[in-house]
Amino acid sequence: MVRTITVASGKGGTGKTTITANLGVALAQLGHDVTIVDADITMANLELILGMEGLPVTLQNVLAGEARIDEAIYVGPGGVKVVPAGVSLEGLRKANPEKLEDVLTQIMESTDILLLDAPAGLERSAVIAIAAAQELLLVVNPEISSITDGLKTKIVAERLGTKVLGVVVNRITTLGIEMAKNEIEAILEAKVIGLIPEDPEVRRAAAYGKPVVLRSPNSPAARAIVELANYIAGGAKKKVPAEVKEKKKEGALAKMLRIFRRR
Ligand SMILES: Nc1ncnc2c1ncn2[C@@H]1O[C@H](COP(=O)(O)OP(=O)(O)OP(=O)(O)O)[C@@H](O)[C@H]1O
């Protein structure tokens, strides 16, 4: 069964795109077939974090009816599949965000996990991205304004029938002035499933256009994101043992023989 998860935040700059990109790579490294869709067609930062800028066909073209979705899917770092948003203002004008749900339905035919990087806030395109997924991953920073904004996003998601998978608290410092996990859970009435520290390696990796989980896998932020990926996916993808595959083949053959014999 395909999982669709929108990564959203209340306000901009929480690290939502950084988390989406690295989570996608970490899940792909665990053997899952993951597609990240950058639904933030006004900002399009995902491609920069993954070092995939300047690709010829993007989500903008697909939403404008100028290209098919399969033309806008690229294989990125660590084997993660990526649909970049596109950066042209002309493309942005022509794109119809209402088409997003149809586009996602098509991608779901060929992936296990679909991660959607939603625009920050609650404008129409953000709400469309939240409504389009089954699950919501809410990214906040450990400060009250970020959490109250995140609460609005969570309430909208619940009204739209999108299940809250959990909260990721990003950019935690050791200054001791931040909100604690239990306080955040009490305000948001949701489980915190990821605690990502402030880590200079994140910015460094972004500057090199390489995901931190690949560039500095031992850095604190990378380790925390891999832990989050394991939590979300329940570990590495289980390989179907060869005998089971063989049995399945026999089953199909037996079925065909039965049909032919009936004739
Ligand atoms: N854990 C972290 N440690 C250090 N820097 C971080 C961390 N997470 C994100 N950043 C930095 O914060 C900045 C904002 O991150 P990012 O672009 O992912 O935010 P965003 O929420 O997607 O923003 P927007 O929604 O406005 O596009 C980037 O410079 C990124 O490198």
From TrEMBL:
Which domain of life, per UniProt?
Archaea
* Domain spans labelled CobQ/CobB/MinD/ParA nucleotide binding: 5-212
A Gene Ontology MF term for this entry? ATP hydrolysis activity
User: Which terms under GO biological process does the entry name?
Assistant: cell division; negative regulation of cell division
Amino acids binding ATP: 11-18
Q: Which keywords appear in this protein's UniProt record, sorted alphabetically? A: ATP-binding, Cell cycle, Cell division, Nucleotide-binding
TM ranges are none
Q: InterPro entries, from UniProt?
A: CobQ/CobB/MinD/ParA_Nub-bd_dom, MinD_archaea, MinD_FleN, P-loop_NTPase, ParA/MinD_ATPase
Question: Could you state one GO cellular component term attached to this entry?
Answer: cytosol
NCBIfam families for this protein? minD_arch
Specify the protein name.
Answer: Cell division ATPase MinD, archaeal
Q: Which organism is it from?
A: Archaeoglobus fulgidus DSM 8774
Lineage of the source organism?
A: Archaea, Methanobacteriati, Methanobacteriota, Archaeoglobi, Archaeoglobales
